[in-house]
């Protein structure tokens, strides 16, 4: 059909645009947490199955070893087959454990995000007690550190260096240009939820591996 004169075509909104237009941050976090929890449950079941396979193969290797060396039912070379299968099961189980741990950290990322939105965060995070200074001009009066403090609300650091950087920001005033730069960086990062999730998960993974 031809459009009427002067009528402009409207592009249909993409899935992301339609989604973000009608979904609140709380709904988005809750949906992602549910999805990550479902994935974690599936990975847990997979890990449990692999654990059972490992146990069964270990028992088979021991039984075949007894049959080969003590009962002399067959040559010991046949033990290599279940032994290789056991080794493969061990590797698969270890990898499954890594995936499960990563999924658990993703769930924790959204759990903490929802706790902040629902005002349930006080007493659950890093209180910054290492940076408390009774001689500071305003830190004590403004509850910068401690339970329910500004530091606990804001801190998502997974390394001592990151926590120190946040503490330094809270303890020292910044000039206007620096404040505007930080605001711009926050505005750029805020809609990139996938990226923020990856950064948080990677930071925890790197800390655990260190």
From TrEMBL:
Any idea which UniProt keywords this protein has? Membrane, Transmembrane, Transmembrane helix
List residues traversing the bilayer: 53-71, 77-96
A Pfam family cross-referenced in the UniProt record is MutS_III
Gene Ontology molecular function terms on file: ATP binding; mismatched DNA binding
Write out the GO biological process terms.
mismatch repair
InterPro entries cross-referenced by the UniProt entry:
DNA_mismatch_repair_MutS_core, DNA_mismatch_repair_MutS_sf
Q: Where is the DNA mismatch repair protein MutS core domain?
A: 146-196
Q: SUPFAM superfamilies from the xrefs?
A: DNA repair protein MutS, domain III
Protein name (record): DNA mismatch repair protein MutS domain protein
Q: Which organism is it from?
A: mine drainage metagenome
Species classification: unclassified sequences, metagenomes, ecological metagenomes
């Amino acid at each position: 059909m031809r459009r009427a004169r002067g009528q402009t075509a409207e592009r249909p909104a993409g899935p992301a645009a339609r989604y973000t237009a009608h979904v609140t941050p709380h709904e988005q976090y809750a949906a992602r947490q549910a999805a990550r929890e479902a994935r974690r449950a599936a990975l847990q079941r997979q890990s449990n199955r692999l654990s059972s396979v490992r146990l069964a193969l270990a028992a088979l290797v021991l039984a075949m070893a007894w049959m080969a060396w003590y009962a002399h039912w067959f040559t010991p070379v046949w033990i290599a087959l279940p032994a290789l299968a056991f080794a493969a099961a061990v590797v698969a189980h270890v990898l499954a454990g890594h995936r499960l741990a990563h999924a658990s950290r993703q769930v924790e990322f959204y759990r903490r995000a929802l706790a902040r939105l629902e005002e349930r965060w006080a007493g659950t995070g890093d209180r910054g007690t290492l940076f408390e200074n009774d001689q500071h001009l305003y830190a004590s009066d403004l509850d910068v550190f401690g339970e329910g403090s500004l530091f606990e609300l804001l801190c998502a650091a997974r390394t001592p260096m990151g926590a120190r950087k946040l503490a330094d920001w809270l303890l020292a005033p910044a000039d206007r240009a620096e404040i505007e730069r930080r605001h711009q960086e926050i505005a750029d990062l805020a809609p990139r939820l996938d990226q923020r999730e990856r950064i948080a998960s990677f930071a925890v993974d790197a800390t655990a591996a260190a």
